[in-house]
Amino acid sequence: MLIHVIIVLVIVGILLWLINNYVPMDGKIKSILNAVVVIVVILWLLQAFGLLSGIGI
Fold first, then answer.
1. Structural domain boundaries of the chain?
2. Distance (Å, rounded) from C-alpha 10 to C-alpha 46?
3. What is the pLDDT of residues 14-39, one digit of tens each?
4. Taking a C-beta distance cutoff of 8 angstroms, is the pair 8, 45 a contact?
5. Checking phi first, is residue 39 left (phi over 0); if not, alpha (psi -120 to 50) or beta?
6. Which of 9, 44, 52, 57 has the maximal Cβ count within 10 Å?
7. Which of 42, 40, 37 is nearest to 13 (CA)?
């Protein structure tokens, strides 16, 4: 379980880094994208560890 979470976090981090460095877009859009990804990852982690139930992500 823990290894699965770590692998997903590494993959998401690498993808976000690639998007931030190699996809040309406005700084505001990058900030919004980063915030959305962080919020989704936090919600996924809470659900994965059973602290958040009832939300289907």
1. 2-48
2. 17
3. 999 999 999 999 999 999 999 999 99
4. no
5. alpha
6. 44
7. 37
Cα of 2 vs its chain's centroid, Å: 16
Helix (H, G, I), strand (E, B) or coil at 56: coil
Q: Sign (positive/negative) of CA torsion 39, 32, 3, 56?
A: positive
Q: Is pTM, for the whole model, over 0.85? A: no
> How far is Cα 34 from Cα 25, in angstroms, rounded to an integer?
12
- Kindly report the number of other CB atoms within 10 A of residue 9's CB atom: 13
Query: Residue 28 corresponds to which tokens in the numbers above?
Result: 């505001």
Q: What is the signed CA dihedral for 31, 48, 6, 18, rounded to 10 degrees?
A: -30
Contact 46, 52 (CB under 8 A): yes
